[in-house]
Specification:
Elements lengths: L6 E8 L3 E8 L10 E3 L4 H7 L10 E3 L4 E4 L2 E4 H6 L5 E3 L2 E3 L21
Parallel strand pairs: 3-7, 4-8
Antiparallel strand pairs: 1-2, 5-6
InterPro entries: ConA-like_dom_sf, Laminin_G, Neurexin-related_CASP
Protein name: Laminin G domain-containing protein
Organism: Caerostris darwini
Length: about 120
């Protein structure tokens, strides 16, 4: 008897700069979930949907471009969230836009008593 374990390789890239890669053991040929979760899950849902998950905090912040790409499937998750698609659910303090911040000029305090 020979036992072989396959691996599914996953990666996520943030802002085209930071990439995190992981692998999970098992035999995979398709995504078996009918819903994509963005930002996290309500605490009551987490135990049901991802019982083995160690992550307990939801995402806080803004998202500009979130895509799911696999083979010939390309889903724009921001558009799906805004149109309230049944394919996508989100939870947490997620904003589907990011404010552009202008760089401020540096200032110097020349004495301990100086203030704005």
């Amino acid at each position: 008897i020979t036992r072989a374990t396959g691996f599914c390789h996953l990666s996520i890239t943030v802002d085209g700069v930071y990439t995190e890669r992981a692998s999970t053991a098992g035999s995979f040929s398709m995504l078996s979930s009918s819903v994509i979760y963005v930002g996290g899950l309500a605490p009551t849902m987490a135990a049901q949907v991802l019982p083995a998950s160690r992550v307990r905090n939801n995402f806080i912040g803004c998202v500009r471009k979130v895509e799911f790409i696999a083979d010939s499937v390309n889903l724009d998750l921001i558009s799906l969230a805004k149109s309230q698609s049944k394919l996508l659910r989100y939870h947490g303090d997620v904003q589907f836009f990011c404010q552009e911040m202008e760089a401020a000029d540096p200032i110097t305090f020349t004495t301990r008593e100086a203030f704005l």
